[in-house]
Amino acid sequence: MGDAGNYLAMGGYAAFVWPAYGVALAVLGGFAWYSWRRYRASAEVLEKLQREFRTRR
Amino acid sequence: MINWLANPARFMRWSAAVLPWCGWATVAVLALGLHLALIVVPPDYQQGESVRIMYVHVPAAWMASSVYLFVAVASAVALVWRHPLAEIAAGAAAPIGAAFTFVCLTSGSLWGRPMWGTWWVWDARLTSVLVLFFLYLGYIALVNAFDEPSRGTKAGSVLALVGVVNLPIIKFSVDWWNTLHQPASVMRLGGPRIDPSMLVPLLVMAVGFLLLFVTLLLLGMRADLNERKAFALRVNSVPAPGRVAVPESAVPAQSSMR
Q1: Higher pLDDT, B236 or B121
Q2: What residue segments make up the domains of chain A, in order of their start?
Q3: What's the confidence (pLDDT) of residue B100?
Q4: Could you read off the pLDDT of B30-46 as tens digits, one per residue?
Q5: So what's the pLDDT on residue B82?
Q6: What residues of chain A lie within 8 A of the CB of B48, using their CB?
């Protein structure tokens, strides 16, 4: 095994270390991505409504 | 100061300025933390490389409890002073806390398998953290269970406050009962009992998780305020006969929030 292979093997604990980091990345990263999308969408909707509201008055 | 910052219109202004800084600081600190945890830190002399799981597990566990305390305090403020921003803060923080708790439980389980020889035991520490996870889920479900948002928030706030009793149980479970889980080695009287080569990366990851929480909290609160404002605009633009009364809690501020 090369250096990279050795590293990825995590001294035999690869099956536990990488999933632990993977779950953290998936859950927290996914949450961050969702939060950002929701925030952008809410800002766009509000902007559109405010523009309509202004032109109607 | 808190009161001054907590005016919804003012909140939208200062949070817009703070948010990008928080976001980039989160990315930078977590990148440094991951570099330290996955590459720089030496393997433990007993646990080998599996010790690297600790750099996710322990900060996630700290955040799981701290965020719950935040939800409970914000709920108390919302109940007592009826502050609209407090209930928005509690509502935005709860799913973040649930996410941290989930990460804590799964990473702990993945560490327990090779080190304890089991994915899960029903001991005091593990069970009380699982209860914390269900408290978060219960709060989120309750807040969203009513047609009128203010009733859901009130019910959720009461649940959040009752659930606070679980926090000292989590903290002291490892001292009060004979658990498989090891006792505290960082936050203990007499100082941390952990080598600086491991303590520093752990604290860097903890700061990274804290920054992530602040970033996600601000994002969630701003999204919620935008949505409430949009809802109020829609309702108010309906012609008079079909007009629906807007619940007061749905409109945090009359002034412009953007």
Answers
A1: B121
A2: 3-56
A3: 98
A4: 999 999 999 999 888 88
A5: 86
A6: 11-13
Domain ranges for chain B? 52-181
From CA B54, how far away is CA B57, in angstroms rounded?
A: 5
ipTM comes to 0.92
DSSP assignment of B78-117:
HHHH--HHHHHHHHHHHHHHHHHHHHHHHHHHHHHHHHHS
**What type of residue is B233?**
L
Per-residue pLDDT for B13 more than 60? yes
| Token reading at B126 | 């593990």
In chain A, the residue whose alpha carbon lies closest to the alpha carbon of B111 is A16
* Cβ–Cβ < 8 Å for B58, B139: no
Tell me the C-alpha distance between A43 and B175, whole Å: 48
Q: What is the pLDDT of residues A2-55, one digit of tens each?
A: 788 888 889 889 899 999 999 999 999 999 999 999 999 999 999 999 998 888
B180: tokens are: 């498989």
Tokens of B65: 């409890």
Helix A30-56 vs helix B84-116: angle between axes, to the nearest 10 degrees?
160
Q: Angle formed by the axes of helices B166-176 and B54-81, to 10°?
A: 140
Is any Cβ of chain A less than 8 angstroms from the Cβ of B93?
no
Residues of chain B positioned with their CB less than 8 A from the CB of A10: 49-50, 52
Q: Which residues of B touch A38 (CB under 8 A)?
A: 219-220, 223
Beta-bridge partner residues of B44: B48
CB B139 within 8 A of CB B71: yes
What rounded mean pLDDT belongs to chain B?
Answer: 88
pLDDT, residue A56, reads: 72
